[in-house]
Amino acid sequence: QVQLVESGGGLVQAGGSLRLSCAASGFTFSSYTMGWFRQGPGKEREFVAVISWSGGRIYYADSVQGRFTISRDNAKNTVYLQMNSLKPEDTADYYCAADRFAKRSVVITVKEGYDSWGQGTQVTVSS
Predict the structure, then answer these.
(1) 62, exposed or middle or buried, with CB in 10 Å at 0-12, 13-18, 19+?
(2) Could you tell me how far CA 79 lies from the centroid of its own chain?
(3) What is the DSSP letter of 113?
């Protein structure tokens, strides 16, 4: 069955960096757009970044543009999120997700477009 396992979260000081990984199994990873979302305390789950199944299209939330980088390694069935210049407001549980449809022609940035989710990894940024 589909499985997404995030790792790499932790506690970091403001201005620091973390690299999140999401290992995928149970589906043809290279055919699916992958997204990162986050959910802070008392907040709704929000879009962070997405990379298309081909890797050719990448989009970021305005709040992380220029600080975060999403990438994928199809040989390793893994998607990454490099997070630099972290801020306290980046504190959240971070989730990776797989698109609902294979090789979709459009890139979806809303959570309703994804139907497979990892368990999340916690990121805490101290001031």
Answers:
(1) exposed
(2) 8
(3) G
